[in-house]
Amino acid sequence: MLSLTNDGSSAELTELVETNDLTGIRLWLAEHPPYEIADELERMDSHLAIIPFRLLDKDRELEVFEELDPVHQQEILLGLRDTAFHELLEEMDPDDRARLIGEVPAKVATRALAGLSPSQRKMTAALLGYPEGSVGRYMTPETVILHRDITVGRALEVVRAKGADTETVYILPVVDDGRRLAGTVELSELVVSDDSVLIKDLVDILVPRVSATDPAEDAARLMQQANLIALPVVDSEERLVGMLTFDDALELIEAADSEDIARQSGASPVAGNYVAASIIRLARARSVWLLLLIVAATLTVNVMQAFESTLEEVTALAMFVPMLTGTGGNVGSQSATAVVRALAVGEVRIRDLPGVAWKECRVGFVLGIMLACIALVIGTALVGSDIAVVVGVTVIAICTWAAVIGSTMPLLARRVGVDPAVVSAPLVSTLVDATGLLIYFSIARVILGI
Amino acid sequence: MLSLTNDGSSAELTELVETNDLTGIRLWLAEHPPYEIADELERMDSHLAIIPFRLLDKDRELEVFEELDPVHQQEILLGLRDTAFHELLEEMDPDDRARLIGEVPAKVATRALAGLSPSQRKMTAALLGYPEGSVGRYMTPETVILHRDITVGRALEVVRAKGADTETVYILPVVDDGRRLAGTVELSELVVSDDSVLIKDLVDILVPRVSATDPAEDAARLMQQANLIALPVVDSEERLVGMLTFDDALELIEAADSEDIARQSGASPVAGNYVAASIIRLARARSVWLLLLIVAATLTVNVMQAFESTLEEVTALAMFVPMLTGTGGNVGSQSATAVVRALAVGEVRIRDLPGVAWKECRVGFVLGIMLACIALVIGTALVGSDIAVVVGVTVIAICTWAAVIGSTMPLLARRVGVDPAVVSAPLVSTLVDATGLLIYFSIARVILGI
């Protein structure tokens, strides 16, 4: 299929740009849809990406621009002359524009706002008034609104008159006299209904709604759960202030998942394309946790030092340290990952904490038994049965302990208002390393009688 | 907001069911939208979930059922009497029904197919003919199709006549005489256009399309990238066979992300709700990799044994083993996680392998330098500068090595046709553990001259 096999054609655009083949670039642009063009531009250095971007037709320029992520939008914008800069901003969807302006340096933001028409400037300022990460920053304020007392025929006239300028008209908000949200009606219902039917007889009043100050990610997950193309957004008095559309929901969910995935590995999320990210940006995103964790790992050195005499007496105990810390870390990471994801998609809630801890305790114990059997065999074969028994018993204890730690920490984090995803696999591993060694040497002393 | 704070009301339904308060259950059901009811049912044991389900009105029953995931659909279905069983299946969306029947035991599938009306049975059998995980299994075969030569007025009549029965009418496929896909037209365009305009003058011919045998996840990511509510699906002769709708795309993306996240922690994905999953199912999903990895960890024991004399001479070297293997594992996992995600969302392709390896090599080196500084300080404070230098140099080497291993392995996996997500953090950690120890003791021998 054309659209799923763009691997071949993509090398070309970079080559065409690098050889400055303007005719070739124009032809390539004409043959590709906006999202594929945006995809290619995101993979190029910004000083190169501006070349094909400038060669786009006026109307496609906007389409391609809106498909870019904010990091690349900013880079492209800074490469444009004043007229093009202002024209592009004026024509953007208000929510995309507000998000972009919210992220650029203050100087660029001032220049951007100054060039807007008064009505667009006002709308942008209103959106920027909502907190970062809130629904208000992502919603479309320009929507076609229907009054509950009008007829379907009149409603279709309203859609025809105003629909062309708005991002979505498939889910239409219905309001009462005070602009308070009564519910929504689908465009398809209007099309199939008789012109004389009243909107109030079609309106779905059970439709979910969110506040403009609610977290945008939660709203997106709600849209996913309820299969909504658009979700009405209201203020504290239940008055309609905008609509959150499915494309924003998709973007929010992908970004949230990417963020959670990065966090799970102990890295901060890096905005924008991986290929275009610099060494320094990638290293910085990963360094914070690594630095904290290597400091925390001092604990493992301390534990090993505390048991130095034991180690000197039975050097063979040292041999199994990497295997035991590794296994504990693996089990703990699995539990943490499972619970973080279950929290993210809403399967687990804070008050499930005792149940989750008890469940993971048993899962860890079952896994421990299985792994201990293998450890016993390996241990006996390599160093003899005395130490093998120590290793086996330790595996059971560490697996159970790791599963409990790994599963309860994300829930405790959520409880104190911290993103559960910061309870990363490396964090759990490091904590389990130190405590696991303590367990190991204690068991060794008891069983070996030293 | 009502819809984002359902934490309070949910305890209630379980309680109402447990106390068998039928009036209370009916009231609760009337007050909640289908997706919230489904959410609650998924959190309950199946023998309990069937009670409120049976109390739903006929038309809401279907809505709630369609919001359930296949695991719970199956459980509910098996708890229904024959008439209810067949009625529910007959009314389901064809794609959801096919997916459900594809997952139940053969005996149930036969019973399910036998009860369908001939037309629905034929449609279901056709969908089941596509490979598992392909677009064909997720698409809606019943769509309103427009011929390119008709007018907008006629098109709206077609929508009115057939639209009520189909899942989506917002993106309408347009075909030519041979039922070959010409492109799509949006319902909103029909509404705002004059009745006499011809469809062929409105059709968007650059719209992406996928083949019914393409992987469903790729098609969903494409819809996300191109912001599509629905995507036309064609056969090998470019004839329209169905539409993939945005709700399926959202579901596919969430499932794919959950799967990748589980895989990243070395676990198989567990279908269905975390809370409802049994201990044995969770343990089984996690055990395969843990068992493989503890066997692989035998390598670390071997390396430690090979350097036994070195360890006996300088016991202090053993103290830093958990810190070094931990750090190497962390850096390697971060690289692997970043590359697996970049591959999943299409930012990195196989042919980027050399570039990615070289980039991660430098990122690992930069991180290594930073971490080595800390390790030097910790090492000097705890055991003296000789060993601290060994530890510091090892940190640089291990971080660089771990980043290269962690980043190239997912790309190599994709190259040989394996899901890159199987290159999990635990797998990378275990590999880096053994090789890292080899590096550590080799450096120690050189620097300490033993």
Automatic annotation (TrEMBL), chains A, B:
Primary location group: membrane
Domain of life: Bacteria
Location within or outside the cell: Cell membrane; Membrane
Alphabetical keyword list: CBS domain, Cell membrane, Magnesium, Membrane, Metal-binding, Transmembrane, Transmembrane helix, Transport
Membrane topology: Multi-pass membrane protein
GO cellular component: plasma membrane
One Pfam match: MgtE
Gene3D superfamilies attached to this UniProt entry: CBS-domain (3.10.580.10), MgtE N-terminal domain-like (1.25.60.10), SLC41 divalent cation transporters, integral membrane domain (1.10.357.20)
Signal peptide start and end residues: none
Keyword Transmembrane helix attributed: yes
Transmembrane intervals: 288-307, 363-383, 390-413, 425-448
Domain CBS span(s) in chain numbering: 139-201, 202-261
Sample GO molecular function, one term: magnesium ion transmembrane transporter activity
NCBIfam families: mgtE
Function, in words: Acts as a magnesium transporter.
Assembly with partners or alone: Homodimer.
Assigned protein family: Belongs to the SLC41A transporter family.
Protein name per its UniProtKB record: Magnesium transporter MgtE
Species: Haloactinospora alba
